[in-house]
Amino acid sequence: MEGKSPVYYQDVEKCVDDVISKVGKKIVFGMPLGLGKPNQFANALYSRAKKDPSIQLTFCTALSLEKPKGASDLEQKFLGPFVERKFDGYVELDYMLDLRKGKLPENFELREFYAKAGSYINVEHTQMNYISSNYTHAWRDSIDAGINVVAQMVSKKEIDGEICYSMSCNPEVSSDITPAMRALEKKGRKIAIIAQVNQNLPFMYGDAVVKPDNFDAVIDTSEYYTRLFGAPKMSITTPDYMIGMYASTLIKDNGTLQIGIGSLGDALCYGLRMRHTQNAEYKKFLNDAGVLSKFGNVIDRIGGIDTFEDGITGSTEMLVDGYLHLLNCGVVKRKTYNNVHIQRLVNERKITEKVTPKTLKLLIEEGAVKPVLTTEDFAFLTEYGIFKEGLTYDNGVIKTGEKEITADLTDSKNLDQVVSLCLGDTLKKAILIHGGFFLGPEALYQMLNDMSEEERKKIFMTSVLNVNQLYGNNRYSSEELKTLQRKNGRFVNACLMVMLSGAVVSDGLENGQVVSGVGGQYNFVSQAHALPDARSILMCKGVRGAGKSAASNIVFNYGHTTIPRHLRDFVITEYGIADLRGKTDREIIQQLLNITDSRFQEELLEMAKKARKIHSDYTIPDQFKKNTPERLEEVIKPFKAKGLFEPFPFGTDFTDEELVIGKSLKWLKAQMTEGLSKVSSLGKAMTIRSVPEGARPYLKRLKLDNPGSAKEKMMQKLVIYALSSTGSI
């Protein structure tokens, strides 16, 4: 691994040998969040540490992906065949298997700054070794931790006769950690930077594309071209849909959108698609649901409900599949350019993507190019399509093949000839989405792979230092350019709880347990306050749990904070929109109570009165006193009857049979409080004496058609009862 880079390997074990030989037995190993982990190399390195206690191995990463595993016997029976079908060929991470078994070796430590929500609750090792960091600080904190080896999955492609690699799904941290490690290498730190090729990975462009010498080693064999992790889609519930519809009204045409993964993000994408492609039904829903009567003023001021004439652009940490659905239906169509002069003129509507003589004239006036074109000016004009291909420039002269034109455009004759012979047709290098990383269902990867090269180049994969923050002029983009690109920015994220002060809880519990991580949320909220026309929108399910275990996610106070109260802005629950920016404490409390589930409104109001934060005679307006789940179902029911608001509007990996079972098991789980002995309907379920004919295919799928034990017989009865109670049989 010393000397000429990169060294090519077909075997991860040999690569691990050489890594240890180069950096020693104290290894701080970094790999990307989510999809881009080089699982085979990571497993080989981890295995070596298990066998050799003299190796001290630390993994620095985030979101270590795991195959779905059911918590109960019933869930395991349901998920087993699904996992076998959808994850066959995916190489699991051995350290995660050992973590779940409680068998991590003493010489190994896992340090993560983000995890799947709730997946590490009460897991001692990960709770102790969690790193609380903004996403934009992940590379820095890894460097401070002494990282000396990094590796990630890449794809390869020949471009202009040269092999190039794409960091594809994960340039968001790698783009910054690699140069930082190279700088430390010059100061004497022994490092190794490794790529593992997987040609199933879409070849993405932008800052993701690097030359081979970016790496010290490249592991490339078709044996490792294994299946990518496909994150199953979550169903969208009625509360999800209501939140998504509210949020969709705040997205401004000719603006910018950032969203994250999950059912709330999917619900927002659905709402935006409905707004654009089914506008009459969209407006009818908003009217029938009381959205316009309650929140019409803020919608008119901040967003809109009409179709997208100019469209929006994406500027997002995470490229979710919803963006591609919005792209396909014409919502995402606002083009941006990584040039401040072009972007300013486009924003001011002085130029369009159609190249005209005016385009060249205004670029000269703007100072983008000099009146007497230089080599650099010519290259710029050609790169962005203002000049057509096939022209050359030599010593102040533009050559068209048949004609030579002096590049002094102060001369009207020269300018006329350039306009006549040199101009292109359309601006090049348009960008529809800036993204940091992607992860999603297998359909997302297929959609990306199926795109033409031209389409895929309009998705510009880059660093989180670019998309997640505004300030500072770095090697990616200037603050001025990002401000122009992100006009009318709407940064939409999910949270767990909202306090009546306006502070927000998103990543942890007050007992110290980490639920997920800060990720990029603080970055985006802060950016929304920094941009002149942007807003932060935090989506919060108003209620968690059901029945007697139901609790409000709007709370008076809580012992943990992710977003401080002084960065408050929009909060949306299934019951409406609270506009908190610049409001007094009294006004904040009033707005949040308006979107609180009515079962909890009065108790919270009394707490606010007791704390003297609101007038003692204040009452919640009548129009906000019917915030109940039943009311939401009434509102959405006629629209569901028309085929709208389906559980999986963007597709699912589950079969029709599995969807029925899943719905029934979800209902059953909701009836439970503390296990099978606490199922409220258990008595009725146990009275079932025969198997209905309609239940047989579902029982067969769960391998409960011929129960062999008392436990299986009880599970069979519960499933039959759940199928019946949900109207499935």
How would you sum up this structure, described in words?
The protein is of the alpha/beta class and 729 residues long. It folds into 4 domains: 7-224, Glutaconate Coenzyme A-transferase (3-Layer(aba) Sandwich), CATH 3.40.1080.10; 238-335 and 433-624, Acetyl-CoA hydrolase/transferase C-terminal domain (Glutaconate Coenzyme A-transferase), CATH 3.40.1080; 340-421, no CATH class; 656-725, no CATH class. It is 38% helix and 15% strand. It is built from 28 helices and 26 strands. The strands form 5 sheets. Strands 1, 2, 3, 4, 5, 6, 7, 9 and 10 form a 9-stranded mixed β-sheet that branches. The protein has a 9-stranded mixed β-sheet with strand order 8-17-16-12-11-18-21-25-26, sandwiched between helices. Strand 5 and strand 6 (162-166) form a beta hairpin. Helix 1 (12-23) crosses helix 2 (39-51), helix 9 (263-277) packs parallel to helix 12 and helix 13 (340-347) packs parallel to helix 20 (479-485). The protein is globular and about 95 Å long. It starts with 6 loop residues before the first strand and ends with a helix. The model has no long low-confidence stretch (mean pLDDT 95).
